[in-house]
Amino acid sequence: MQGERPTVRLVLAISLDGRLAPAEGGAAQLGGDGDRIALEQALAWADACLIGAGTLRAHQCTCLIRNQTLVDQRLAAGRPAQPAAVVASRSGNVSSSWRFFQQPLQRWLLAPAPMEWGFERWFPLAESWTEQLVGLGSAGIQRLVLLGGAHLAADLLAGDCVDELQLTVVPRVLGGGNTWLPTTSPGLPYALSQAEAWRAVGAEPLGSGEWLLRYRRLRESAE
Q1: If exposure means fewest CB atoms within 10 Å of the residue's CB, which of 84, 173, 210, 214 is most exposed?
Q2: Percentage of residues of the chain with pLDDT beyond 90
């Protein structure tokens, strides 16, 4: 019997005009202290975080939970201090010099072939994200935070595999083409554009003019 896929929460900080980074590109530096708290709370909720190799290449590390209370809560529940980092890469082009490989967490790889170093687990790329996520579910991942990048987010949305949106809106206007969903990405399912597709489940100020918006995907099977 086919297993269940994890609940996927997309977590992003975006500008008022929907950009992830300045027009000139580079690693995104959006979000202040309030956004960092919200991000760490999402990581504490998750069993793993999913990150594209391009985003990892830009930052050369992933986000860790620094709040000791959140770490202690995970440990008390019998969970690792940090969620596993699942890297999606079609090329396997990663460098052992990245700080990512010294960070205190489990590293899993989604790629066409395994690597001989750096990753504790490997999963071959599946034909669809639904199938890929079911594989992660079978490995014990029930809650997954999707950290990007934009193309990876677009791929999961195209497969209607995103269940929750956690968006921090930052009071900056950046311009350029670095939108949080690429304009060149394949068309998304028509259902996602409908008024009943998403339910607002929260909005809160984070300070410094930032707002945290939460939405949940409404599906036909939902009661």
Answers
A1: 173
A2: 74
DSSP notation for 52-65: EHHHHHHHSS----
Nearest to 60 by CA among 83, 36, 93: 93
Cα Dmax for the chain: 49
For the chain, give every domain's residue range.
7-217
Contact yes or no for 52/148 (Cβ under 8 A)? yes
For every residue of 155-191, DSSP letters joined together read HHHHTT---EEEEEEES----SS-BSS-TTSPPPPGG
Cis (ω within 30 of 0) for the bond into 149? yes
DSSP label of 19:
B
Fold topology of 7-217: Dihydrofolate Reductase, subunit A (3.40.430)
Give the CA distances from residue 191 to residues 57, 73, 171, 214, in Å, rounded to whole numbers and listed in that order: 33, 37, 30, 19
- Model's pTM, two decimal places? 0.92
Report how far apart, in Å, the C-alpha atoms of 24 and of each of 30, 31, 59 are. 14, 18, 16
Q: Residue with structure tokens 């990048």? A: 149
CA distances from 173 to 30, 75, 95, 184 (A): 11, 40, 33, 21
Helix/strand/coil (H, E, C) string of 68-98? HHHHHHHHHCCCCCCCEEEEECCCCCCCCCC
Quick: pLDDT tens for 143-179. 999 998 888 999 999 999 999 999 999 999 999 888 9
